[in-house]
Design brief:
The chain has one domain. With about 300 residues, it is mainly α. The two termini are about 25 Å apart. It has 13 helices and no strands.
Length: about 300
């Protein structure tokens, strides 16, 4: 019993650390927009993540060969589709801070949970009973309504320049939803660290090519040491540590509790952006953001009820 309690405590600490990682990354990214272009920033951050994961890929590949898991399968081939989706999502994620505020990113990115459910309906039979839960439809409606509240008044007014930012941000959440389902379908046979490591290597290669085509790699050489250190820190928090901590929490606490806790991350981003960046969202933006979070909470509730009904 004591061991279980210790395990649960560690999982809760991992979950809190993951929430902090995901909550502060939009603030980091927004703070870099005057120092470096989005293509170069994306490539540098993911390169740091890839270097971090490379030893895990090498070691786990050796173990996989020793265990002869599902002969004929290749983690490099199985990872192609999820890596392709991840590349699209990372391009969008890297571009978002150049168009919209950190707090807006923090709220709207919670839409990814809705899209992961919708893609789950299409691709995973076990997810379809969720459609019978009223909480799902209420949550979906709240998420869409919240985004509309946040963006529509400004898009129809003098800030029509926000259209690209909104499209990129929502498109990124769609890709993340598809990525989650794709991981379950394509990579279930492999350890989580190996999966993230291989996908990180693919993603880094693509982002470096995009940087060479569209970015200014030489800008890295002119960065202040403090800025470069913060870029590396943001990469470790967002690319390397955050996902591992979250999956550690999911393993011990379950996906429902972990998904519900993720709805807190916009509040971390909101508070941090106000303190660090001086961002002051309007009242209508805050209302819309909290409606999105409420919709996400309703989706988690519907997911929990569907899981209990299936037992």
């Amino acid at each position: 019993m004591r061991r279980f309690g210790t395990e649960k405590t560690r999982a809760l600490l991992c979950l809190c650390a993951a929430l902090l990682c995901f909550g502060v990354v939009p603030i980091f990214l927004r703070s870099f927009i005057d120092d470096i272009d989005k293509w170069t920033l994306n490539a540098v951050r993911y390169s740091v993540g890839a270097v971090f994961w490379l030893p895990a890929v090498v070691l786990l590949r050796r173990r996989l060969r020793a265990q002869h898991i599902e002969a004929g399968r290749s983690v490099w081939l199985d990872a192609l589709l999820p890596a392709g989706i991840n590349i699209l999502s990372q391009v969008g994620w890297g571009a978002c801070p150049y168009y919209v505020s950190a707090s807006t990113i923090g709220f709207v990115v919670r839409l990814s949970f809705l899209f992961s459910i919708l893609f789950g309906f299409l691709c995973l039979r076990e997810e379809r009973p969720l459609a019978r839960q009223p909480a799902f439809w209420a949550g979906a409606a709240l998420c869409v309504t919240g985004v509309a509240i946040m963006f529509v008044p400004r898009l129809t007014g003098a800030r029509a320049d926000l259209w690209p930012g909104m499209a990129i941000l929502v498109g990124t959440t769609v890709c993340w939803g598809a990525y989650t389902v794709c991981i379950r379908r394509c990579m279930a046979a492999y350890p989580v660290r190996l999966t993230f490591g291989v996908i990180s290597l693919y993603t880094t290669a693509a982002l470096v090519v995009l940087m060479l085509i569209n970015g200014e790699p030489s800008a890295v050489l002119s960065l202040r040491a403090k800025t470069l250190a913060l870029i590396i820190l943001s990469a470790l928090l967002g690319v390397a540590f955050g996902h591992v901590l979250l999956y550690r929490a999911v393993h011990a606490l379950g996906p429902i509790v972990s998904s519900g806790a993720l709805m807190v991350t916009p509040l971390i981003t909101l508070a941090g952006a106000a303190l660090v960046l001086g961002e002051e969202p309007s009242a209508i933006e805050l209302v819309g953001g909290f409606v999105v979070v409420g919709g996400g909470a309703a989706l988690v509730m519907g997911k929990a009820r569907a899981s209990r009904a299936a037992e």
